[in-house]
Automatic annotation (TrEMBL):
Gene: trmB
Organism: Gulbenkiania indica
Domain of life assignment: Bacteria
Transmembrane segments: none
GO MF term list: tRNA (guanine(46)-N7)-methyltransferase activity
Name this protein carries in UniProt: tRNA (guanine-N(7)-)-methyltransferase
Pathway: tRNA modification; N(7)-methylguanine-tRNA biosynthesis
Gene3D superfamilies referenced in this protein's UniProt entry, alphabetically: Vaccinia Virus protein VP39
Catalyzed reactions per annotation: guanosine(46) in tRNA + S-adenosyl-L-methionine = N(7)-methylguanosine(46) in tRNA + S-adenosyl-L-homocysteine
């Protein structure tokens, strides 16, 4: 287990709870007992959490959960563990789980770095999704960006050999940084020559569709754990 005394001095998120609707609160109250996993400083048995043996994909920061639910619905033979700190997004994804009658999604409402450190064992994940993380565009805030070498090192250790690490962003400068960070990790191999084409499993979000119409770019970076 990584250093249990590890203390984070810089967080990649600001806890902006926003407005929690009555429906989102109801979804949390009703859905978390079934689909939520409480944070605990102890290893999590993922097969027990999902009640089956199947490929396990981790998503860090699922936002409002629309893409997450769509991916899970399209891939019922794969289990998805979503981590998000913002309550409105958690509530919204739980609503979608209920509406779509999904059984292959679980949610942890906690800091992803602490979950990686304390709950996920080495070599347990078949893939990791990090879609549109906060770009922290101002240079003085770049240190808050989620995707940096220490996190990537943790993620690589939690991936099975051959497991993939997939990030997507609409900030070109951040995309270049992510590509450099992934490329610098000796345990990872790029699946493409530079940036990757968007794989079919990652749906276009409404925000992304609007950006494409306006001529904005989106960059996918997909590497695999060597071995």
């Amino acid at each position: 287990m990584d250093n249990p005394a590890f203390q984070r001095s810089i967080r990649s998120f600001v806890l902006r709870q926003g407005h929690l609707s009555a429906g989102q609160q109801r979804a949390i109250d009703q859905g978390m007992p079934r689909f939520g996993i409480e944070y605990a400083p102890a290893r999590l048995d993922l097969n027990a959490a999902f009640g089956r043996t199947a490929p396990k994909i981790l998503e860090i920061g699922f936002g409002m959960g629309g893409a997450t639910a769509e991916i899970a619905a399209a891939n019922p033979d794969v289990d998805y563990l979503g981590i998000e700190v913002h309550s409105p997004g958690v509530g919204n994804l739980l609503k979608l789980i209920d509406e779509k009658q999904l059984t292959n999604l679980r949610i942890i409402r906690h800091d992803a770095v602490e979950v990686l450190d304390m709950m996920l064992a080495p070599d347990v994940l078949d893939g990791v999704h990090i879609f549109f993380p906060d770009p922290w565009p101002k240079k003085r805030h770049h240190k808050r960006r989620l995707i940096q070498a220490p996190l990537v090192e943790k993620l690589v250790s939690r991936l099975k050999p051959g497991g993939y690490l997939h990030a997507a962003t609409d900030w070109e400068e951040y995309a270049q940084q992510i590509l450099e960070v992934f490329s610098a990790n000796p345990g990872l191999e790029n699946t493409a020559e530079g940036f990757a084409p968007r794989p079919a499993y990652r749906p276009l979000t409404k925000f992304e569709q609007r950006g494409i119409r306006l001529g904005h770019g989106v960059w996918d970076i997909i590497f695999r754990r060597a071995g």
